[in-house]
Amino acid sequence: MAVAFNRAVAWYGRLIWGLEAVLPLFDLSVRLYLAHIFWTGGMVKLSSWMSTVMLFTMVYDVPWLPPEMAAYVTTAVELGGSFLLAIGLAGRWAALSLFGLNVVASISYGQLSDAALQEAFYMGILFLYLVLHGPGPLSTDTLLCHLIQRRQSKSDAEHNLSEQTVPHSVSNASDAEMKTGLPWRG
What we know:
- The structure is a single chain.
- The protein has helices at 2-47, 49-58, 67-87, 91-108, 114-133, 140-172, 175-180.
- It is mainly alpha-helical.
- Helix 1 (2-47) crosses helix 3, helix 1 crosses helix 5 (114-133) and helix 4 packs antiparallel against helix 5.
């Protein structure tokens, strides 16, 4: 019985290790999937700007903003947020901004079908995953964090080395040498 339990625990450990090994690719694929959807929407808006402004004037009822301003803001958030999300730079903020855009778009366009609302809901869940979990190890955020930590640890090491070198040489000098200013010779 104990042998079967040990095998089950070992198998479970290998399964968890395998799933954790795939997690960075999952994070990257979620980011690229969502970024592609919103990038495409932003590019469509840019390709026919007059139609975009007309849609925001007549169809989309965006609260708090005039239609033309809403078109500019929406397009900027779609393109900027998608780019940042794809490369993983400011990943949580990009996901949060696109999540907000997703919510406002779902609310402001009253003619969404149940399937479209369900898709917006699932995209919202994925955005919240990225907000809470972060962009993952395959991101610019992680690369910058490693570079900053590396620079900081190098700076700390140099600082510690300089602190250790000065007191060490002074403590080895005799009182007479320190008073006369002569260099210590050992």
